[in-house]
Amino acid sequence: MTIFDELESEVRSYCRSWPVVFDSALGSRLTDVDGNSYLDFFAGAGALNYGHNPPALKQPLIDYLRRDGVTHGLDTHTAAKAEFLRAFREIVLEPRGLDYKVQFPGPTGANAVESALKLARKITGREAVINFTNAFHGMTLGALSVTGNSMKRGGAGIPLVHATPMPYDNYFDGTVPDFLWFERVLNDQGSSLNDPAAVIVETVQGEGGINPARVEWLQGLAELCKRHGILLIVDDVQMGIGRTGPFFSFEIADIQPDIVCLSKSISGYGLPMALVLMKREHDRWDAGEHNGTFRGNNPAFVTATAALREYWTDDVLEKETLAKGERIEEHLDRLAATTPELTLTPKGRGLARGLAFSRPELAGKACAAAFERGLLMETAGPCDEVMKLMPPLTMTEDELDEGLAIVTDAVHCVAAGA
Amino acid sequence: MTIFDELESEVRSYCRSWPVVFDSALGSRLTDVDGNSYLDFFAGAGALNYGHNPPALKQPLIDYLRRDGVTHGLDTHTAAKAEFLRAFREIVLEPRGLDYKVQFPGPTGANAVESALKLARKITGREAVINFTNAFHGMTLGALSVTGNSMKRGGAGIPLVHATPMPYDNYFDGTVPDFLWFERVLNDQGSSLNDPAAVIVETVQGEGGINPARVEWLQGLAELCKRHGILLIVDDVQMGIGRTGPFFSFEIADIQPDIVCLSKSISGYGLPMALVLMKREHDRWDAGEHNGTFRGNNPAFVTATAALREYWTDDVLEKETLAKGERIEEHLDRLAATTPELTLTPKGRGLARGLAFSRPELAGKACAAAFERGLLMETAGPCDEVMKLMPPLTMTEDELDEGLAIVTDAVHCVAAGA
Amino acid sequence: MTIFDELESEVRSYCRSWPVVFDSALGSRLTDVDGNSYLDFFAGAGALNYGHNPPALKQPLIDYLRRDGVTHGLDTHTAAKAEFLRAFREIVLEPRGLDYKVQFPGPTGANAVESALKLARKITGREAVINFTNAFHGMTLGALSVTGNSMKRGGAGIPLVHATPMPYDNYFDGTVPDFLWFERVLNDQGSSLNDPAAVIVETVQGEGGINPARVEWLQGLAELCKRHGILLIVDDVQMGIGRTGPFFSFEIADIQPDIVCLSKSISGYGLPMALVLMKREHDRWDAGEHNGTFRGNNPAFVTATAALREYWTDDVLEKETLAKGERIEEHLDRLAATTPELTLTPKGRGLARGLAFSRPELAGKACAAAFERGLLMETAGPCDEVMKLMPPLTMTEDELDEGLAIVTDAVHCVAAGA
Amino acid sequence: MTIFDELESEVRSYCRSWPVVFDSALGSRLTDVDGNSYLDFFAGAGALNYGHNPPALKQPLIDYLRRDGVTHGLDTHTAAKAEFLRAFREIVLEPRGLDYKVQFPGPTGANAVESALKLARKITGREAVINFTNAFHGMTLGALSVTGNSMKRGGAGIPLVHATPMPYDNYFDGTVPDFLWFERVLNDQGSSLNDPAAVIVETVQGEGGINPARVEWLQGLAELCKRHGILLIVDDVQMGIGRTGPFFSFEIADIQPDIVCLSKSISGYGLPMALVLMKREHDRWDAGEHNGTFRGNNPAFVTATAALREYWTDDVLEKETLAKGERIEEHLDRLAATTPELTLTPKGRGLARGLAFSRPELAGKACAAAFERGLLMETAGPCDEVMKLMPPLTMTEDELDEGLAIVTDAVHCVAAGA
């Protein structure tokens, strides 16, 4: 019996799929305590877009620690935060013409979502919010109330109310006009829909099964929100910071959300950090109205700043991400075409990719087969029916090909057994 | 206009009291970008019980980073987590005869509280919970619903329901028997109190104004919970990890809570980390029922392990904490006695100390005067009427005396102006 | 200034459309204190299906009062209740093969709806319910939470939660398959729809604008509920007791709802009375779990019994209702055809009829014009865009023609002014 | 098997205590179908303050029905309503200097409570309300949320939130100052009490066990509400209309509640009717914001008017009520004094009287023994520990003595068996 079995709660989950003890990691590979190496198509569920322990960030981090830079700063002013804010303004906001204020809401994506919902309710004076089918926004009560998964919702132990689900893009496979139901109930004074403060949306649903919303759908949503005085919150926790190519996933739709949630890869080093961006006129917070002990995780500010300087001062990473994404797409298309008996559906955008199985249980089997071959992958989707391919954006082409070959092997293996 | 004024949200608060830019920190002192030094009676709101960047933790942290130990691990097994769990079992649980399972609920205290409430509701099948007047448990919706402060509650933007407040110890200055109201409504089938799943309590209220509950009150609460089949959750986020002397603040009452929340100083280095401890029989979680990206902040596990080994293998720190606490108590008693015109009330336990002003606005003024003299302090209490003294447990006696002298100066200064 | 203006709350509404003081009423006519007579196309909002003070009910009522029969009986056994139950079993339930238990939930439709929702939640252990767009179920909090109208919902003063709206039949004018959205979110474990205890539905929406659901839609709904273990509640408060032809409005669909709410015309004399019918296996109430002072309004039981015996022992009333309904339909079709400039849409079933105006404000004007001509009508629909024709079922053909002529006049008058 | 056993829901309750079939009733006596007579110490749970079928009301009612007066009027103006309003103004409001507007909220006490809560929330813009331990306000969701009984609350099937209980008068047997807890949490910005829109209170709790609040407590409550901008709602549904002596039960405290709920005996004949009274400045309703089919139960208006004219144009009834109340009090005091082994506690005000048993189960047995002797009584209180004496106010002294003799017999019988 390991220390984990003995002492750690039954709530643990990833370790059940990958029953090894990881020790070190670099770039796109992890090594376990027995020296075995694993290629990473998982990237910390999107928190490691630049791979593990990227040297360009590691050195500034160690330097900062070595010189006793402030570690824990709450929301005091620190030199490290100032540097991050300047870099964020210069590298991220200004080139994109975005006039956002920045909030440090606590170090997790759920903190960002909770803050965003509070702020939207304060601004509008309304309680209700709209979320989408198969959304994932986090596990704290506010974030969970806009999350789709029924098992996770059940964990709340109280009825989750105040949010009403609307169909995400393509929920009816294109057979129903976009926003037909949503706009109808908004316009109908008898629909019984409580007036919503905000819509919260992921541009590509990750946990929901790697579902990319079309550009025109996102634009339609932004227009609908504007028409009805509803705030648009983009939860870019998983799909932001380059996962789909551009820094913000919504850039391709040329929209400016009222509020944006960022976390996961924002620190670039897997360190807890999150941001809420809000249009300047929406910064209606009172001082201290939302707080939290770990808002000022300064080592994360240091790596976040280094990451912006390393990866976002030109468009190299974005282009490579798109190119690698296409490489995966082509590979998955071929795979689907050559295993028609499995009716596989490739989907995704940038380096957020999925392979949906018509027989859901096979996706998990394929991930297990991949793990046996040294590749880390997890499933996604409401029935865990999607193999999720989320490699570090910085993965080399050779590693990518190596991983894709394993995916093919794993799928074939499953096909043989199916 | 600084970058903070320009770009950071109005929600920021500590920086308004201390309008400098901190750069580095060591032990009990911070240094700003202009080279000014500040003595710390604040300790990261309890997250820095061992002071800033303690060398005994710093070296293992830098070593771990340098050797590319896994940084971000979600809830996979890692060598760093195994080592932490072993140390926690050996140094914390076993010597105290505690048979707790350990959950990593996400890296903040609010994550721990949200998990604890979910678990209590799942175990009991009830929705209602009991909190106490002037409680503080966090800013996410579940944690906020059991928090007392009306301004912070108002930030929710929806009615916070499911929790009913009960009077904390000494709420009526000893004029009413303990638990008179609480037990009466529990026993009365017509009281309209919804059956509670759990009681959540701090043994010493920090944000609520440094209010220590008496040992017999805590014991009475534990017995009352047992009698009525209510789970007892101790939120030891701020008062645990030695703040009041022993590792767990509830040890002095010789009680074993059903669920314990830990965070803040658990990593020892100001890095985001939190734990939920639950009695073995209460580990009713399903795999993945609660999750979160930053549960596996492995650098924090490394420093947490080093901190346990450094500070908790003997009782030196505990004894010193108690001794320093008495030193503060004596000082504050003298101060109160010599400034009768202010009607000051010292209070607290261990190194969680407060000085309550009968004229609330003076507490803030005294903190400001202390800051002018190079000492960091914040206020607490529903009217911000308490100067809060929470130095690192590792502060030297000289530093402590230096700080106390400033407190005296600051109070005198306020007394003169009052 | 009248006593009403002086003393009655601003909440009053019908009296604003008909600013006269009614004094007496018989059959399909009311008379005001000045002796003016009004033809009734309103029928007490469906509470007077047999017209005003029907002689066949009046005599038993007066006899009962004269002989000092028990008036107020709570839920004691009374001779009058026994007689009603026997008649209800013999005349209503047995011939239709319905094995329902009968609850007297309090004297209003809202009491019936509140009871039905409680019972469904108790049986299933779930909190959520499904209602339909433009539903109307009552004004108490439980009933209001499943009601569509935003003004009335706003009156609650608290967020109305626990109910999720689904599109009623024809909500998209037939362009979307029935239950596409509803069944999709039920089947999708990631939809974020809380599992519903029950669906509550009107077979024809009255307040919602006289919207009849098609037989196949009602059947589809019943099947969907069965498939998903959801209880089907038919709110037959307004459309039951013969309003659409048969005693229960759902008979045409050959379905057996799990729970049925009846009120309005059940007493037959405009006296407050309501019933909840539940399948025998669903009678999971504990004694006294729902109560209320006026559950045993025995004079209403007397008239209810007399009404069953007078009108429901053969199929004459049902056939006449259908015939009169067709007469109205033909008339309205002609009217719409001859006033194409108004784009009128006739709709309805049995003697629940409506005439929808494409320019909503004209419906109210037409009702006002009808009132000037001595005909009582009200509007319905989310924009008050429908003239509602709900005459007593017992109205003579001559009266019906008289009323329809006035409707035509009123519409022409509005057309001329439009 | 009777028709009731076969067909009526298990929810029925009074009939279980009194397993006979009542047929007729007059004054203070009911007669069952076998000709047995029962003296009534129950009075329709307070709905029959003038006894059964009082002749002075019966004749106007029959006359009204015979002349085909409007029966069902919704909220149209009717002659019967005008007459009622005039009588209510002249006989009730003006002599007491009360400037209330009158709302007809639907025919039950729960309708009145639901309306009162809606209105209070609208006026204040707050959601929370305060209720008292052992309160009873009704069974619809809004009314149930302010009701104390846990079995009835459980019937809701959803968590009942938005209301916080406070201790009713004497909840701690006089050992704690009035409003100590209530005022403390209102004044404490950290108490976690949501700001209340209103307090709802019964001046004497009926279902809660015949608990009269002292005059000074009621005055203290009114002052506390005023001080904190909280609306005071008196639910006078059971204790109004003379039950405790004066027309309004709160008259003895010389207070003017912001909102008053009336129902039960307002019609005087056991017919469903209810009123909400609100201070003129509080009539903030929009037209139609709260409605309901049976608001205009005109036969009830007729008997209500007759009752006001018969019983309230002088102070005879009030004085007799007080005298009879004292007669009961003396009798119960003697009974308690002569059966010390039962530790009986008489309590009450006017003709709302109770006899509390220290061994709760004996109260039910005594009521059963009373029923065997031809007297109708029910229990009250959270443990059904109180025999409730609520005779018609119009009961003769001989009948009262007859009933009290039976009570004595029944108690002795129970004492013998105990």
Automatic annotation (TrEMBL), chains A, B, C, D:
<comment type="pathway">
    <text>Amine and polyamine biosynthesis; ectoine biosynthesis; L-ectoine from L-aspartate 4-semialdehyde: step 1/3.</text>
</comment>
<protein>
    <recommendedName>
        <fullName>Diaminobutyrate--2-oxoglutarate transaminase</fullName>
        <ecNumber>2.6.1.76</ecNumber>
    </recommendedName>
</protein>
<dbReference type="InterPro" id="IPR005814">
    <property type="entry name" value="Aminotrans_3"/>
</dbReference>
<dbReference type="InterPro" id="IPR049704">
    <property type="entry name" value="Aminotrans_3_PPA_site"/>
</dbReference>
<dbReference type="GO" id="GO:0045303">
    <property type="term" value="F:diaminobutyrate-2-oxoglutarate transaminase activity"/>
</dbReference>
<keyword id="KW-0663">Pyridoxal phosphate</keyword>
<keyword id="KW-0032">Aminotransferase</keyword>
<dbReference type="Pfam" id="PF00202">
    <property type="entry name" value="Aminotran_3"/>
</dbReference>
<dbReference type="InterPro" id="IPR015422">
    <property type="entry name" value="PyrdxlP-dep_Trfase_small"/>
</dbReference>
<dbReference type="InterPro" id="IPR015424">
    <property type="entry name" value="PyrdxlP-dep_Trfase"/>
</dbReference>
<keyword id="KW-0808">Transferase</keyword>
<comment type="similarity">
    <text>Belongs to the class-III pyridoxal-phosphate-dependent aminotransferase family.</text>
</comment>
<dbReference type="InterPro" id="IPR012773">
    <property type="entry name" value="Ectoine_EctB"/>
</dbReference>
<dbReference type="InterPro" id="IPR004637">
    <property type="entry name" value="Dat"/>
</dbReference>
<dbReference type="InterPro" id="IPR015421">
    <property type="entry name" value="PyrdxlP-dep_Trfase_major"/>
</dbReference>
